[in-house]
Amino acid sequence: MSVNSTTQGQRPSANTEQQPKGKRFNVSILGIAVPVAVIAAIGSLETAQTERASREVFFNIQGFAVMYFVFGISVSVILGAFIQRLRVWRLGRRHGVFTDLGARITNALTLGAGTGRVTNDRYAGVMHWCIYSSFAVLTLVTILLAVDDYFDLIFQVGGEHAFLEGGIYLAYSLVGDVFGLIGLVGIGMAVFRRFGPAPAKLTWDRRQSEDAIVVGLLGFVLFTGFLVEGLRIGAHEIPLGHENWSYWSPGGWVIAKMVAGASNGALLTTHQVFWWIHVIGAFGLLTLMALTKFRHIVFAPVNAFLKRPAVPSYLAPMGDFEQLIEEGASLGAGKIQDFSWKQLFDADTCVRCGRCTEVCPAYTAGQPLSPMAIIQDLKSYMNHAGPLLIAGKDASEEVNGELVGDYVKDESLWACRTCMACVQECPVLIEHVPTIVDMRRYLVMEQARIPGTAQETLENIEQRGHPWRGTQLTRETWLEQLRDEGVEVPIFDGSQEYLYWVGCSGALVERNMPITKSVVRLLIEAGVSFGVLGQQETCTGDPARRLGSEFLFATLAETNVASMNEIGVRRVITACPHCFNSFKNEYPDFDGQWEITHHAEFLQLLLAQGKLQPKEMDGQTITFHDSCYLGRGNGIMDAPREVLSSIPGADLVEMPRNREKGLCCGAGGGNMWLEEQGTRVNHLRTAEAANTGANIVATACPFCIQMFEDGIPAVQADEENRSIQAFDIAELLEVSVAPPRTSGENAIPPGVTG
């Protein structure tokens, strides 16, 4: 789309005839009144015939008390299975779920019961709506029938029916039939989806026998429901002259017409047989909820309530390390007891739909990670080790293999980018990333089983306060370069309104220093009161936390919080989404309470206030890449686009995967410092950017910039014919705002015309 484009409304034709307002009003009233009168007349004629409409609940059924016995068996199986799983979940650590109740209830109603994410796959969305709405409505229909039947028995109010008679009964019948038919449509779609040309994601963990049982029994119960209804209508309602009642049960009426030639005795006998078949099938279907993935129809809304209301990029602290060590607790998660009971419940909620794996950047690149497989592997281990632990046995001696290393492979855990695409996509609200990071913590802090490059990174953070091994730059190199250009940047002393947190990448990576300097120049241009820490800055600890070294992260967080509070920091600006996420969402756990703003939002605010005035930028087509920790993780997607849109002459085009569905650059989760198997993720994302036809890929993250700088030469090897370059939004805005500069290193980003 062009950021300069405008929309022009269509002007009405001068020849269009306009009726006077009064006449138009009268026509509108007649248009409503006539059909209403017709409907009322028809209704009055029908009332005399339908006011006695009703039906006997156990028509033609003897010994119906046996039904309660069958129901009791079903309930017993359901309760037994639930209690068995509950005992397994209770093996996990405590997990609080009664905070932010408003947000949790909203999640349960919208994302859970409302199946908010299911519709991300359009076909599956329609299919699930048909089946789910049918199941929910027909369950309600059955409950209302029971209430109507037992109301007099319980309250002794007199009368055969409490409310299901006359027009109410007919409307009730129509609703039941309509949603029964809707359910059959959904079953047909499910059969085609599962047993026809299925999408690849449904073949990664296909269990056709289970699918066939669930889908088949659902369809069988719905069909026999119509069959029983049709036999009752054919044997009873129509012979008694009440065929007009049966019109309100269209599915049953069709069946009744199909069997109209049979004798009344045959219809009654067949009705009895299929009534019992239908009842046993219905209770069998309920039992499947406890034994198969069909239980997600209940578990999904529950899991939506249990889901953390916090942003998906938040990781919870482990607690007091000294206390954990004294208690002999594991550092990280290597066995069932190390996970929270919520994480174990996640594993039982998974329906193996494959959506998480489909959007996983590592899997897309052919790397050894499937988020769905990790959750299923955890569930397999639960199924093997859980009953042993409940019985008081040592699972490590009885189970063949360890959870981390055997069931879940090390290389799968290290391939994760913690980009949260899986968490964003999961229709049953599973939170994969915290579970993966907990197992990484176990590998790092308990097993010391960590890739060499990751170990070097952690050592560098611990010893030098940054992850960049071998860099010759210091945290003040960029300050010295600006000073040589005549720009003095104040050191924060508490008198300034904002601390500009540069971050390790902004200060110590040569490509990212121009971004840091662009942000500073823009802040100075806008007259913002700010300062920097210079050499006093150290790593926020984000790479350490994502790589699994929670102790190192906690140490850095406590140090940073103490020093920043000591110098009077109140507001922080940063250009790094990872630093932003740590400060905003994770440092409050360590008493770091400040106002945190990412530079994309801050620059957008300065533009809105008129403190920055962009000028023309000719011939630039820009595609914007959403950083995972800025967009999907913290919901900041509009601000960077608005910054780019403010530049006159710039055209903004989108990649196919954008905003909350954007593809990761590949650097997250510490993978900036890990070797990759398969195709590099950043090469995939770079190709997507180049295929838009844009000549600039813009982002608002220094890690993403580095990944694009690596990816562009790989995707477009011919340097002379390269069509795309990577810039931060601050670099592009500065070129448009600031007067042209011809001196100084990287004064004007190459390829950008100011």
Please outline the major beta sheet. 4 strands, parallel
Task: Describe the oligomeric state of these chains in a short phrase.
Answer: single chain
In what range is the share of β-strand residues? under 5%
pLDDT averaged residue by residue: 89
Q: How much helix is in the residues? A: 40-55%
* Low-pLDDT sequence parts: 1-28, 37-45, 742-748
Number of helices: 31
Major sheet: arrangement of strands: 2-1-3-4
* Number of strand segments: 8
Can you give a write-up of this model?
This protein has 754 residues and is mainly α. The chain is built from 31 helices and eight strands. The strands form two sheets. A four-stranded parallel beta sheet has the order 2-1-3-4.
Summarize the model shown.
The chain is mainly alpha-helical and 754 residues long. The chain has helices at residues 21-50, 65-89, 101-113, 122-155, 166-195, 208-237, 243-246, 250-258, 264-291, 296-306, 321-326, 341-349, 355-359, 361-364, 371-390, 395-398, 410-414, 421-425, 432-446, 452-464, 477-484, 503-508, 513-525, 542-547, 550-566, 577-586, 599-608, 638-645, 681-691, 702-715, 729-737; strands at 498-501, 530-531, 571-574, 595-598, 620-624, 650-653, 696-699, 725-728. The protein contains 31 helices and eight strands.
How is the secondary structure organized here?
Layout: H1 21-50, H2 65-89, H3 101-113, H4 122-155, H5 166-195, H6 208-237, H7 243-246, H8 250-258, H9 264-291, H10 296-306, H11 321-326, H12 341-349, H13 355-359, H14 361-364, H15 371-390, H16 395-398, H17 410-414, H18 421-425, H19 432-446, H20 452-464, H21 477-484, E1 498-501, H22 503-508, H23 513-525, E2 530-531, H24 542-547, H25 550-566, E3 571-574, H26 577-586, E4 595-598, H27 599-608, E5 620-624, H28 638-645, E6 650-653, H29 681-691, E7 696-699, H30 702-715, E8 725-728, H31 729-737
Parallel strand pairs: 1-2, 1-3, 3-4, 5-6, 5-7, 7-8
